Structures are given as C-alpha cells and as structure tokens.
Amino acid sequence: MTLRVAIVGGGPAGIYAADQLIKSETDVSVDLLERLPAPFGLVRYGVAPDHPRIKEIIKALQRVIAHPDVRFLGNVELGVDVKLEDLRQYYDAVVVATGAMADRDLGVPGEDLAGSHGAADFVSWYDAHPDVPRAWPLQATSVAVLGVGNVALDVARVLAKTGEEMLSTDIPEHVYQGLRDKTITDVHVFARRGPAYAKFSPLELRELAHSPNVDVIVHPEGFEVDEHSMQHIQKNKQSKMVLDTLANWVGRDPEGKPHRIHLHFLEQPVEILEDADRPGTVGGLRTERTELVGDGSVAGTGEITDWDVQQVYRAVGYRSTALPGVPFDHTAAVVPNDGGRVLDLDGDAIPGLFVTGWIKRGPVGLIGHTKSDAAETVAHLLATTTPTAPLRAPADVDAYFAERRVEVATGASWERLDQHEIALGEQAGRTRIKVASRREMLDIGSTATPE
C-alpha cells in the first residue's frame, strides 16, 4: 500500500524531505502544503534580488515538485484552512517544514519605536512577499543595520544601492519605486564583536564594493585582532578571507560616491533612541564600545556613542513560530524533536508527526544542512510509519478543500504563474518580474494561458 505523507511547508526543507521520500524504496505519495501560492520559501522570498545566482537552486527544487509522486498544494495554511487532526484522516505521516521567517528580538529599549524594523520584514518587502504592505518608509538620511551576517549585508546593500541598479532584477514596480525614491545616503553596520568573528561570507562582503554608487568604509576604531582572533581565522578559511578583505579596506579614502556603507566593529547596541521632535519614532542609536577579552567574547567598556540615524534595521537572526496543534519550545523557538520525531510534553515521540529544517534545529546552516536534516527525518519516518489513514486517495484531500472553499494553488497553477512572471521579465529585458499580490497570483494561476 502506498504511504501517504503531507509536508507542511514548500521551501527547501520541505522539498528536500519530499525528494528523500520519492527516492526511497518505499512506495510513497507526497502532498506539499504551502501557505503561499508559490513554492520555494526563503529561496524566493529571502534571497536578495540582486543575487540571482543563489536562486539557481530553484531549478533543482522545481524538479522535485514536478515529480509525479509529488503534489504542490499552495495557498493552504495549517490552522486556517486545515487542522492537524484533519490531516491525520488523509495522511499516514505529517512532516512540519515551515522554516523561520520571523525576526529575533534584539532586547534593548526602544526596539518597538516606529522606524525600528526587523530585517526579515524588510527582506520580505523587497522580495515582493504577498503578505506584506506595498509601501516601505525609506525617507531617512542615515540608517543603522545591526548584525554581521549575510542578511545584514543584503539589507545594507539594498538600502545603499540606487533603484536603477536594482531594476535589472526581478523586483516589481512598487519595490523599484520605493528604492528609487529613497533618500538614504549613509548605512552604518554595527558589529558587537571584532572583525575576525564577522559571519559574512567572503563573496557577499566583496560584493559590497561592486556598486558604482556606493563607497564602503571600514572604520579603524574597533578594528582589533587579538591572539584568539588569529587562532580563530587559522581554523576557519572563510573568516580569514573576510578579515583579509576588511583589512584591505580599513582607512581607505572614500571615492566620493553618493552613498556610503560604514562598517563599525566592537560597537554594541544598547538603546534605540526616541526622536524628541517626533515622539514614538527613532531618533538615533546608542552603542557601547566593547573590547576583546581573549577568548572570543567581548566586554563593555562603558564608552557610549550616540549615532544620528533615523531608522534601525535589526538583522540579528530569524526565529520560527508556533503552529496550531504542534508542540513548540518557545525558548529555543523550535519544535521539540528527537532526530526529527516530534516529542510531546513528556518527551515521547508522537506517532506520525515529524519535523525538518530550521524549525527542527534553529535558523543556522546552509542548504547542505537542510538536506542532511531531511535525510535524518525521513529515515525515522520510513522506519516507524505504517499506512493508517482511513481516507487515502488524493481526491479525498481535494474534496476536503473544495467543501471548505479553499482556493488551492496546484502545481499547474504555479507553472502558469512561473511562465507569466518570466514573460513579464522578457518584455522588460529581465529574467523575471515577480507578481506580488496574492489575489493576482491566484488569478494568474487559474488562467489557462498567461496574459
């Protein structure tokens, strides 16, 4: 008998789990349930538009979705359109793979002021996520980006580059207009630790200097490397490459370009300041100078600096969110699990319920880690799952959603939307132009021929 599996989440984690299942020796049928009308998760909605090379992974993911034993069911949200207990009627196992799209809290006063933004929200806006507002406030002169990962670099780069530079990417018109009309001239990126511990990838860092409109300024204050830093980079080739690049930029004279990205090390945010003239809004950032203490960590020095910035972007990491009916550890922001087997409050594995990806282990690691996550989870699923669902035909699932008038975006719907976006891009001499409206995405997907 064919094993029926529902995977909740159509991003890389869910698709890799589907790939592991269909490549196994078990006869299996997989439904990918995704709350958006389009698949691919953070690859579509978390990668900066001016990094199309990273999106090449979509080609491999698309091949999995196109497999005859895999069905894509988009515009379906767990807890809104279907309950977990209802899925149990149609599937022998459910795999949760919803990833991490929310911002981690920074934990400093002023974090909730208007003008203090989570990086994930800004990324969703410039990536044309259908569930975020069309407009984004970019009427500032100087802004702060807090964090030293690739997301922080993406945010800084997009804030600094001109709208015209971004026009060759897949951004739709409203994103272009927002970037075109922004007034930002200076973007300050703050790192709590020293330059040897920056989490940037070498390629991402070097790309900062590729814009003809952006000067990259590495400030010498705080650019310190101690013995522990040297030991760290000797063990980590990427960290050494990052440090070498930064060292070459320290003290370099700006070329007079209209926009600037400033990199500040050993500066710890302690408060987002309120604008005295505009109560409730950001009027600055207060940082404390830190110092290396010899073991890779830092300590505050008591030296305080107030920075004149009008917006703050917090790029200190993503976090997962709870799902209805699924156990959740709110402290670690993951689903409690043992190798992908979801655990109940007593620490016992819940039969037929599994988890994979960032919601399984936290938002760290690259695509390769997601693949190994999926392999571990699927191995447990196949070893412990037997056919138990009473309603086993795909048509039963379709009837359930039809009865509840859920407007499901199928794999064919996604193909039509995909072709439509590519056609829009071809008309403008671009690879693709994204459709941002959920309603429009669904309407295009239900149309036999793209307009």
Strand order of the largest sheet: 3-2-1-4-18-17-16
- What's the mean pLDDT score? 95
What summary fits the major beta sheet? 7 strands, mixed
The amount of helix comes to: 25-40%
Alpha carbon gyration radius: 23 Å
Q: Structural class from helices and strands?
A: alpha/beta
Low-confidence stretches: none
CA-CA gap between termini: 42 Å
Number of helices in the DSSP assignment: 16
Q: Any idea how many domains?
A: 2
Shape: globular
Give a quick precis of the structure.
The protein has helices spanning 12-22, 41-45, 57-65, 84-87, 119-126, 150-160, 163-166, 173-181, 202-207, 227-235, 237-249, 358-361, 367-384, 394-403, 411-427, 438-445, and strands at 3-8, 28-34, 70-74, 93-96, 102-103, 116-118, 142-146, 186-190, 214-218, 259-264, 267-274, 282-292, 298-307, 311-314, 318-319, 337-338, 341-343, 349-355.
List the helices and strands and how they pair.
Layout (H helix, E strand, L loop, with lengths): L2 E6 L3 H11 L5 E7 L6 H5 L11 H9 L4 E5 L9 H4 L5 E4 L5 E2 L12 E3 H8 L15 E5 L3 H11 L2 H4 L6 H9 L4 E5 L11 H6 L6 E5 L8 H9 L1 H13 L9 E6 L2 E8 L7 E11 L5 E10 L3 E4 L3 E2 L17 E2 L2 E3 L5 E7 L2 H4 L5 H18 L9 H10 L7 H17 L10 H8 L6
Parallel strand pairs: 1-2, 1-4, 2-3, 4-18, 6-14, 7-8, 7-14, 8-10, 9-10
Antiparallel strand pairs: 5-15, 11-12, 12-13, 16-17, 17-18
Helix pairs in contact: 1-13, 5-6, 10-11, 15-16
